[in-house]
What does this fold into?
Amino acid sequence: MQAELTDEELMLAYGAGEASAFETLYSRHRGPLFRFMLHQVRDHGTAEELYQDVWQRVITARARYQPDARFSTWLFQIAHNRLTDHWRALQHRPPAPADAEERTIREADQETPERQLSAFEERRRLQLALEELPADQREVVLLRLEQELSLEQIGQITGVGRETVKSRLRYAIDKLRLRLKP
Amino acid sequence: MTAPKPPTEAHDDQERELARILRALPAGEPSPELDARILRSAANASASSRKPHVRWFASAGGLWGIGAAAAAVLALGVSWQMLDPSRGYGERTSPVSVAQESDSAVVVELGETRRDAPQPMPGPPPANAPAPARVQDSGAPMAKAVAEAPRPAPAAPARASEPLSFPHDGLDEGVAARSEAAPKVSGIDVASVESTTILTAEQIGKVEARQRKAADANLAARDAAGSAREQSADVSGFAAPSATATGPMKPAAWLAQVRQLLAANRTEEARASLKLFHKRYPNYVVPADLAPLLRE
It folds into this structure.
Protein backbone atom coordinates (compact mmCIF):
# COMPACT_ATOMS: atom_id res chain seq x y z
CA MET A 1 0.00 0.00 0.00
CA GLN A 2 2.67 2.43 1.11
CA ALA A 3 5.02 1.31 -1.65
CA GLU A 4 2.61 2.89 -4.11
CA LEU A 5 2.76 6.23 -2.41
CA THR A 6 5.14 8.83 -3.64
CA ASP A 7 7.99 10.08 -1.55
CA GLU A 8 6.19 13.31 -0.95
CA GLU A 9 3.04 11.55 0.25
CA LEU A 10 5.09 9.36 2.56
CA MET A 11 6.84 12.35 4.03
CA LEU A 12 3.56 14.12 4.62
CA ALA A 13 2.18 11.00 6.26
CA TYR A 14 5.20 10.80 8.50
CA GLY A 15 4.81 14.45 9.37
CA ALA A 16 1.24 13.65 10.37
CA GLY A 17 2.47 11.00 12.79
CA GLU A 18 2.59 7.81 10.75
CA ALA A 19 5.92 6.32 11.70
CA SER A 20 5.69 3.46 9.21
CA ALA A 21 5.77 5.94 6.35
CA PHE A 22 9.25 6.93 7.37
CA GLU A 23 10.44 3.33 7.23
CA THR A 24 9.32 3.07 3.62
CA LEU A 25 10.88 6.39 2.78
CA TYR A 26 14.12 5.45 4.47
CA SER A 27 14.37 2.15 2.66
CA ARG A 28 14.03 3.92 -0.66
CA HIS A 29 16.78 6.46 -0.12
CA ARG A 30 19.25 4.94 2.29
CA GLY A 31 21.51 3.44 -0.38
CA PRO A 32 21.77 6.40 -2.78
CA LEU A 33 22.17 8.89 0.04
CA PHE A 34 24.84 6.90 1.82
CA ARG A 35 26.82 6.34 -1.37
CA PHE A 36 26.63 10.02 -2.11
CA MET A 37 27.99 10.85 1.32
CA LEU A 38 30.64 8.15 1.18
CA HIS A 39 31.91 9.27 -2.20
CA GLN A 40 32.10 12.79 -0.93
CA VAL A 41 33.98 12.27 2.31
CA ARG A 42 35.73 9.00 1.37
CA ASP A 43 35.57 7.77 4.95
CA HIS A 44 32.98 5.28 6.08
CA GLY A 45 32.80 6.52 9.65
CA THR A 46 32.47 10.15 8.63
CA ALA A 47 29.95 9.19 5.99
CA GLU A 48 27.85 7.41 8.59
CA GLU A 49 28.04 10.38 10.91
CA LEU A 50 26.98 12.81 8.23
CA TYR A 51 24.39 10.39 6.90
CA GLN A 52 22.79 10.12 10.31
CA ASP A 53 22.79 13.89 10.67
CA VAL A 54 20.98 14.24 7.39
CA TRP A 55 18.21 11.88 8.42
CA GLN A 56 17.99 13.55 11.79
CA ARG A 57 17.38 16.84 10.06
CA VAL A 58 14.68 15.19 7.99
CA ILE A 59 13.05 13.93 11.15
CA THR A 60 13.26 17.30 12.82
CA ALA A 61 11.80 19.10 9.82
CA ARG A 62 8.96 16.61 9.29
CA ALA A 63 6.23 18.99 10.42
CA ARG A 64 7.51 21.83 8.25
CA TYR A 65 7.90 19.78 5.10
CA GLN A 66 6.05 21.19 2.13
CA PRO A 67 6.07 19.25 -1.13
CA ASP A 68 7.18 22.21 -3.17
CA ALA A 69 9.91 20.12 -4.74
CA ARG A 70 10.66 16.45 -5.04
CA PHE A 71 11.53 14.76 -1.80
CA SER A 72 14.83 13.53 -3.22
CA THR A 73 15.76 17.08 -4.11
CA TRP A 74 14.96 18.19 -0.60
CA LEU A 75 16.85 15.28 0.89
CA PHE A 76 20.01 15.89 -1.12
CA GLN A 77 19.73 19.59 -0.40
CA ILE A 78 19.95 18.74 3.28
CA ALA A 79 22.88 16.48 2.51
CA HIS A 80 24.57 19.25 0.56
CA ASN A 81 24.15 21.67 3.45
CA ARG A 82 25.52 19.13 5.88
CA LEU A 83 28.52 18.54 3.66
CA THR A 84 29.08 22.27 3.34
CA ASP A 85 29.10 22.51 7.12
CA HIS A 86 31.51 19.62 7.16
CA TRP A 87 33.91 21.22 4.72
CA ARG A 88 33.60 24.54 6.49
CA ALA A 89 34.49 22.90 9.75
CA LEU A 90 37.59 21.38 8.16
CA GLN A 91 38.42 24.75 6.54
CA HIS A 92 39.53 22.93 3.53
CA ARG A 93 38.93 19.64 1.90
CA PRO A 94 41.35 17.15 3.29
CA PRO A 95 43.73 15.74 0.78
CA ALA A 96 43.40 12.24 -0.41
CA PRO A 97 44.97 9.87 2.02
CA ALA A 98 48.46 8.78 1.21
CA ASP A 99 47.40 5.19 0.87
CA ALA A 100 44.39 6.00 -1.27
CA GLU A 101 45.55 3.98 -4.20
CA GLU A 102 46.41 1.02 -2.01
CA ARG A 103 43.05 1.17 -0.26
CA THR A 104 41.25 1.37 -3.56
CA ILE A 105 43.05 -1.70 -4.76
CA ARG A 106 42.28 -3.52 -1.53
CA GLU A 107 38.59 -2.72 -1.70
CA ALA A 108 38.46 -3.72 -5.30
CA ASP A 109 40.19 -6.95 -4.51
CA GLN A 110 37.46 -7.85 -2.09
CA GLU A 111 34.67 -7.48 -4.58
CA THR A 112 36.09 -7.92 -8.05
CA PRO A 113 37.17 -11.17 -9.55
CA GLU A 114 40.80 -11.12 -10.41
CA ARG A 115 40.11 -12.11 -13.96
CA GLN A 116 38.21 -8.84 -14.59
CA LEU A 117 41.34 -6.75 -14.56
CA SER A 118 40.18 -4.19 -17.08
CA ALA A 119 37.00 -3.43 -15.20
CA PHE A 120 38.92 -3.23 -12.00
CA GLU A 121 41.32 -0.80 -13.53
CA GLU A 122 38.45 1.35 -14.73
CA ARG A 123 36.92 1.60 -11.31
CA ARG A 124 40.21 2.30 -9.65
CA ARG A 125 40.92 5.15 -11.99
CA LEU A 126 37.45 6.58 -11.61
CA GLN A 127 37.76 6.46 -7.87
CA LEU A 128 41.00 8.34 -7.95
CA ALA A 129 39.67 10.81 -10.46
CA LEU A 130 36.66 11.55 -8.22
CA GLU A 131 38.90 12.14 -5.27
CA GLU A 132 40.94 14.61 -7.24
CA LEU A 133 37.95 16.66 -8.29
CA PRO A 134 37.08 19.88 -6.46
CA ALA A 135 34.24 19.34 -4.03
CA ASP A 136 31.70 21.39 -5.96
CA GLN A 137 32.46 19.54 -9.21
CA ARG A 138 32.46 16.15 -7.51
CA GLU A 139 29.14 16.87 -5.90
CA VAL A 140 27.58 17.88 -9.17
CA VAL A 141 28.90 14.90 -11.07
CA LEU A 142 27.79 12.47 -8.37
CA LEU A 143 24.31 13.92 -8.29
CA ARG A 144 24.17 13.72 -12.03
CA LEU A 145 25.69 10.30 -12.57
CA GLU A 146 24.42 8.45 -9.52
CA GLN A 147 21.05 10.05 -8.93
CA GLU A 148 20.39 11.05 -12.54
CA LEU A 149 19.05 14.37 -11.36
CA SER A 150 18.42 17.13 -13.81
CA LEU A 151 20.54 20.25 -13.94
CA GLU A 152 17.69 22.23 -12.44
CA GLN A 153 17.36 19.85 -9.52
CA ILE A 154 21.09 19.91 -8.93
CA GLY A 155 20.93 23.68 -9.04
CA GLN A 156 18.21 23.62 -6.39
CA ILE A 157 20.24 21.31 -4.22
CA THR A 158 23.52 23.13 -4.47
CA GLY A 159 22.03 26.60 -4.58
CA VAL A 160 23.53 27.69 -7.86
CA GLY A 161 22.11 28.40 -11.27
CA ARG A 162 21.60 25.91 -14.03
CA GLU A 163 24.48 27.27 -16.11
CA THR A 164 26.83 27.00 -13.18
CA VAL A 165 25.79 23.41 -12.69
CA LYS A 166 26.25 22.74 -16.36
CA SER A 167 29.72 24.28 -16.31
CA ARG A 168 30.81 22.35 -13.23
CA LEU A 169 29.48 19.15 -14.69
CA ARG A 170 31.28 19.68 -17.94
CA TYR A 171 34.62 20.31 -16.20
CA ALA A 172 34.17 17.27 -13.99
CA ILE A 173 33.28 14.91 -16.82
CA ASP A 174 36.20 16.07 -18.90
CA LYS A 175 38.58 15.37 -16.03
CA LEU A 176 37.11 11.95 -15.39
CA ARG A 177 37.31 10.98 -19.03
CA LEU A 178 40.84 12.20 -19.21
CA ARG A 179 41.73 10.10 -16.15
CA LEU A 180 40.05 7.05 -17.54
CA LYS A 181 41.92 7.10 -20.80
CA PRO A 182 44.44 4.33 -20.94
CA MET B 1 10.36 -2.51 -1.62
CA THR B 2 11.97 -0.93 -4.59
CA ALA B 3 12.22 2.79 -4.67
CA PRO B 4 10.42 4.41 -7.55
CA LYS B 5 12.90 6.22 -9.69
CA PRO B 6 12.27 9.92 -9.94
CA PRO B 7 11.89 11.42 -13.38
CA THR B 8 15.36 11.86 -14.64
CA GLU B 9 17.14 13.72 -17.33
CA ALA B 10 18.64 11.11 -19.61
CA HIS B 11 22.38 10.74 -19.69
CA ASP B 12 24.24 11.37 -22.85
CA ASP B 13 26.75 8.79 -24.04
CA GLN B 14 29.64 10.14 -22.03
CA GLU B 15 27.59 10.36 -18.86
CA ARG B 16 26.16 6.90 -19.41
CA GLU B 17 29.59 5.34 -19.65
CA LEU B 18 30.82 7.11 -16.53
CA ALA B 19 27.67 6.22 -14.65
CA ARG B 20 28.15 2.57 -15.50
CA ILE B 21 31.63 2.58 -14.04
CA LEU B 22 30.53 4.60 -11.05
CA ARG B 23 27.79 2.14 -10.20
CA ALA B 24 30.31 -0.65 -10.31
CA LEU B 25 32.33 0.95 -7.53
CA PRO B 26 32.13 -0.76 -4.17
CA ALA B 27 28.80 0.29 -2.77
CA GLY B 28 29.03 1.17 0.85
CA GLU B 29 25.97 0.87 2.97
CA PRO B 30 25.08 2.15 6.39
CA SER B 31 25.46 -0.42 9.09
CA PRO B 32 22.35 -2.16 10.40
CA GLU B 33 22.97 -0.56 13.76
CA LEU B 34 22.88 2.86 12.15
CA ASP B 35 19.67 1.96 10.32
CA ALA B 36 18.07 0.84 13.55
CA ARG B 37 19.21 3.96 15.35
CA ILE B 38 17.74 6.24 12.73
CA LEU B 39 14.45 4.37 12.53
CA ARG B 40 14.14 4.34 16.30
CA SER B 41 14.79 8.05 16.42
CA ALA B 42 12.12 8.63 13.79
CA ALA B 43 9.59 6.51 15.66
CA ASN B 44 10.31 8.24 18.94
CA ALA B 45 9.97 11.63 17.34
CA SER B 46 6.68 10.64 15.78
CA ALA B 47 5.36 9.28 19.07
CA SER B 48 6.42 12.34 21.00
CA SER B 49 4.85 14.62 18.44
CA ARG B 50 1.58 12.71 18.56
CA LYS B 51 1.16 13.24 22.30
CA PRO B 52 1.11 17.05 22.17
CA HIS B 53 -1.21 16.80 19.22
CA VAL B 54 -3.57 14.63 21.23
CA ARG B 55 -3.26 16.93 24.20
CA TRP B 56 -4.02 19.92 22.04
CA PHE B 57 -6.96 18.14 20.50
CA ALA B 58 -8.25 17.06 23.87
CA SER B 59 -7.85 20.48 25.34
CA ALA B 60 -9.54 22.07 22.36
CA GLY B 61 -12.38 19.58 22.62
CA GLY B 62 -12.58 20.17 26.30
CA LEU B 63 -12.80 23.89 25.76
CA TRP B 64 -15.53 23.38 23.20
CA GLY B 65 -17.39 21.13 25.61
CA ILE B 66 -17.07 23.56 28.47
CA GLY B 67 -18.18 26.40 26.25
CA ALA B 68 -21.19 24.47 25.00
CA ALA B 69 -22.19 23.48 28.52
CA ALA B 70 -21.83 27.03 29.76
CA ALA B 71 -23.94 28.32 26.88
CA ALA B 72 -26.61 25.72 27.55
CA VAL B 73 -26.74 26.58 31.24
CA LEU B 74 -26.94 30.26 30.41
CA ALA B 75 -29.74 29.68 27.92
CA LEU B 76 -31.67 27.57 30.40
CA GLY B 77 -31.24 30.16 33.10
CA VAL B 78 -32.39 33.00 30.89
CA SER B 79 -35.34 30.97 29.66
CA TRP B 80 -36.32 30.10 33.20
CA GLN B 81 -36.16 33.72 34.20
CA MET B 82 -38.02 34.88 31.13
CA LEU B 83 -40.74 32.28 31.55
CA ASP B 84 -42.64 34.25 34.14
CA PRO B 85 -40.54 36.51 36.27
CA SER B 86 -43.51 37.73 38.27
CA ARG B 87 -44.07 34.40 39.96
CA GLY B 88 -41.95 32.48 42.34
CA TYR B 89 -41.26 28.82 42.44
CA GLY B 90 -43.68 28.05 45.21
CA GLU B 91 -46.50 29.71 43.38
CA ARG B 92 -45.83 27.79 40.22
CA THR B 93 -45.93 24.48 41.98
CA SER B 94 -49.06 25.01 44.02
CA PRO B 95 -52.14 23.36 42.55
CA VAL B 96 -54.32 26.36 42.91
CA SER B 97 -52.39 29.24 44.23
CA VAL B 98 -54.79 32.01 44.80
CA ALA B 99 -57.94 33.48 43.48
CA GLN B 100 -57.73 37.11 42.73
CA GLU B 101 -60.54 39.54 42.65
CA SER B 102 -61.32 41.57 39.63
CA ASP B 103 -64.20 43.77 38.72
CA SER B 104 -64.55 42.33 35.28
CA ALA B 105 -63.15 38.87 35.27
CA VAL B 106 -62.38 35.95 37.43
CA VAL B 107 -58.69 35.32 37.55
CA VAL B 108 -57.62 31.87 38.50
CA GLU B 109 -54.05 30.77 38.53
CA LEU B 110 -53.60 27.23 37.51
CA GLY B 111 -50.77 25.11 38.68
CA GLU B 112 -48.88 22.26 37.18
CA THR B 113 -51.17 19.68 38.71
CA ARG B 114 -53.81 20.70 36.19
CA ARG B 115 -51.98 19.25 33.26
CA ASP B 116 -54.18 16.21 33.38
CA ALA B 117 -57.34 18.21 33.71
CA PRO B 118 -60.32 16.49 32.16
CA GLN B 119 -61.88 18.07 29.18
CA PRO B 120 -64.79 20.34 30.04
CA MET B 121 -68.19 19.21 28.95
CA PRO B 122 -69.27 20.86 25.74
CA GLY B 123 -72.25 23.11 25.78
CA PRO B 124 -73.21 26.67 25.15
CA PRO B 125 -72.55 29.09 27.95
CA PRO B 126 -75.57 30.21 29.89
CA ALA B 127 -77.01 33.57 29.23
CA ASN B 128 -76.11 34.77 32.67
CA ALA B 129 -72.78 33.15 32.72
CA PRO B 130 -70.08 35.19 34.30
CA ALA B 131 -67.21 36.63 32.38
CA PRO B 132 -64.78 34.00 31.19
CA ALA B 133 -61.95 33.19 33.41
CA ARG B 134 -58.60 34.56 32.40
CA VAL B 135 -55.93 32.03 32.96
CA GLN B 136 -52.66 33.58 33.90
CA ASP B 137 -50.56 30.52 33.43
CA SER B 138 -49.37 31.50 29.99
CA GLY B 139 -46.84 28.72 29.86
CA ALA B 140 -49.37 25.91 30.24
CA PRO B 141 -51.15 24.96 27.03
CA MET B 142 -53.67 22.87 28.88
CA ALA B 143 -54.54 25.85 31.03
CA LYS B 144 -55.24 27.83 27.91
CA ALA B 145 -57.39 25.06 26.61
CA VAL B 146 -59.32 25.01 29.83
CA ALA B 147 -59.81 28.75 29.73
CA GLU B 148 -60.90 28.77 26.12
CA ALA B 149 -63.20 25.80 26.45
CA PRO B 150 -66.93 26.38 26.38
CA ARG B 151 -68.29 27.09 29.75
CA PRO B 152 -70.83 24.54 30.93
CA ALA B 153 -74.10 25.48 32.42
CA PRO B 154 -74.11 25.84 36.17
CA ALA B 155 -74.67 22.47 37.64
CA ALA B 156 -76.34 21.41 40.78
CA PRO B 157 -74.49 22.13 43.98
CA ALA B 158 -71.79 19.68 44.71
CA ARG B 159 -72.20 17.21 47.47
CA ALA B 160 -69.88 15.31 49.65
CA SER B 161 -68.54 13.33 46.71
CA GLU B 162 -67.03 16.48 45.33
CA PRO B 163 -63.75 17.16 46.96
CA LEU B 164 -63.89 20.86 46.50
CA SER B 165 -64.98 23.04 49.31
CA PHE B 166 -65.70 26.70 49.04
CA PRO B 167 -66.15 28.48 52.30
CA HIS B 168 -68.22 31.57 52.42
CA ASP B 169 -68.02 32.79 55.89
CA GLY B 170 -64.81 34.59 55.13
CA LEU B 171 -66.53 36.97 52.80
CA ASP B 172 -66.96 40.34 54.23
CA GLU B 173 -69.89 42.45 53.44
CA GLY B 174 -68.05 44.58 50.97
CA VAL B 175 -67.01 41.64 48.94
CA ALA B 176 -70.49 40.19 49.08
CA ALA B 177 -71.93 43.45 47.92
CA ARG B 178 -69.53 43.69 45.01
CA SER B 179 -70.31 40.15 44.02
CA GLU B 180 -73.78 41.31 43.05
CA ALA B 181 -72.40 43.35 40.21
CA ALA B 182 -69.64 41.01 39.15
CA PRO B 183 -69.81 37.43 40.28
CA LYS B 184 -66.45 36.08 41.08
CA VAL B 185 -64.74 33.33 42.89
CA SER B 186 -63.12 34.74 45.89
CA GLY B 187 -61.23 33.10 48.58
CA ILE B 188 -60.80 29.63 47.17
CA ASP B 189 -59.34 27.91 50.13
CA VAL B 190 -56.29 25.97 49.26
CA ALA B 191 -56.59 24.10 52.48
CA SER B 192 -59.89 22.71 51.45
CA VAL B 193 -58.73 21.42 48.14
CA GLU B 194 -57.12 18.06 47.71
CA SER B 195 -53.64 18.24 46.38
CA THR B 196 -54.70 16.12 43.47
CA THR B 197 -57.89 18.04 42.85
CA ILE B 198 -58.33 19.32 39.35
CA LEU B 199 -60.15 22.54 38.86
CA THR B 200 -61.94 22.56 35.57
CA ALA B 201 -64.07 25.12 33.87
CA GLU B 202 -67.09 23.13 34.88
CA GLN B 203 -66.07 23.28 38.46
CA ILE B 204 -65.39 26.96 38.14
CA GLY B 205 -68.93 27.36 36.91
CA LYS B 206 -70.21 25.44 39.89
CA VAL B 207 -68.17 27.57 42.17
CA GLU B 208 -69.53 30.69 40.65
CA ALA B 209 -73.10 29.43 40.91
CA ARG B 210 -72.64 28.59 44.52
CA GLN B 211 -70.88 31.83 45.10
CA ARG B 212 -73.80 33.69 43.69
CA LYS B 213 -76.10 31.81 45.98
CA ALA B 214 -73.96 32.63 48.91
CA ALA B 215 -73.77 36.23 47.93
CA ASP B 216 -77.53 36.39 47.65
CA ALA B 217 -77.84 34.80 50.99
CA ASN B 218 -75.41 37.26 52.43
CA LEU B 219 -77.35 40.13 51.02
CA ALA B 220 -80.61 38.74 52.29
CA ALA B 221 -79.25 38.12 55.70
CA ARG B 222 -76.58 40.73 56.00
CA ASP B 223 -77.25 41.06 59.67
CA ALA B 224 -77.14 37.35 60.21
CA ALA B 225 -73.71 36.26 59.16
CA GLY B 226 -73.91 33.28 61.40
CA SER B 227 -76.80 31.81 59.52
CA ALA B 228 -74.94 32.30 56.31
CA ARG B 229 -72.06 30.35 57.80
CA GLU B 230 -74.39 27.51 58.57
CA GLN B 231 -75.72 27.62 55.05
CA SER B 232 -72.27 27.40 53.60
CA ALA B 233 -71.52 24.52 55.86
CA ASP B 234 -74.53 22.75 54.56
CA VAL B 235 -73.47 23.35 51.00
CA SER B 236 -69.98 22.06 51.53
CA GLY B 237 -71.17 19.04 53.35
CA PHE B 238 -69.00 19.52 56.37
CA ALA B 239 -67.63 22.32 58.40
CA ALA B 240 -64.71 23.65 56.55
CA PRO B 241 -62.51 26.38 57.86
CA SER B 242 -63.06 29.82 56.65
CA ALA B 243 -60.56 31.76 54.67
CA THR B 244 -59.89 35.33 54.07
CA ALA B 245 -60.15 36.93 50.72
CA THR B 246 -56.41 36.78 50.27
CA GLY B 247 -55.58 33.31 51.50
CA PRO B 248 -56.38 30.29 53.63
CA MET B 249 -57.01 30.42 57.32
CA LYS B 250 -53.98 30.09 59.48
CA PRO B 251 -53.60 26.84 61.43
CA ALA B 252 -54.14 28.42 64.81
CA ALA B 253 -57.41 30.01 63.71
CA TRP B 254 -58.43 26.77 62.09
CA LEU B 255 -57.86 24.84 65.29
CA ALA B 256 -59.70 27.49 67.25
CA GLN B 257 -62.65 27.00 64.94
CA VAL B 258 -62.49 23.27 65.52
CA ARG B 259 -62.61 23.89 69.23
CA GLN B 260 -65.64 26.12 68.73
CA LEU B 261 -67.38 23.33 66.87
CA LEU B 262 -66.57 20.93 69.67
CA ALA B 263 -67.88 23.38 72.21
CA ALA B 264 -71.14 23.59 70.21
CA ASN B 265 -71.38 19.78 70.30
CA ARG B 266 -70.91 19.59 66.54
CA THR B 267 -68.46 16.76 66.95
CA GLU B 268 -68.71 15.29 63.49
CA GLU B 269 -68.12 18.60 61.84
CA ALA B 270 -65.21 19.26 64.16
CA ARG B 271 -63.71 15.87 63.32
CA ALA B 272 -64.12 16.41 59.60
CA SER B 273 -62.58 19.83 59.83
CA LEU B 274 -59.69 18.49 61.91
CA LYS B 275 -59.08 15.68 59.47
CA LEU B 276 -59.00 18.16 56.68
CA PHE B 277 -56.65 20.27 58.72
CA HIS B 278 -54.36 17.32 59.30
CA LYS B 279 -54.37 16.50 55.64
CA ARG B 280 -53.55 20.07 54.75
CA TYR B 281 -50.89 20.47 57.42
CA PRO B 282 -49.52 16.95 57.96
CA ASN B 283 -46.43 18.23 59.75
CA TYR B 284 -48.38 20.38 62.14
CA VAL B 285 -48.60 18.80 65.59
CA VAL B 286 -52.25 18.52 66.53
CA PRO B 287 -52.81 19.82 70.05
CA ALA B 288 -53.36 17.22 72.72
CA ASP B 289 -56.92 18.29 73.38
CA LEU B 290 -57.88 17.71 69.77
CA ALA B 291 -55.71 14.65 69.07
CA PRO B 292 -58.31 12.15 70.40
CA LEU B 293 -60.79 13.56 67.96
CA LEU B 294 -58.46 12.76 65.09
CA ARG B 295 -57.94 9.19 66.28
CA GLU B 296 -61.60 8.36 66.68
Remarks:
- The radius of gyration of chain A is 18 Å.
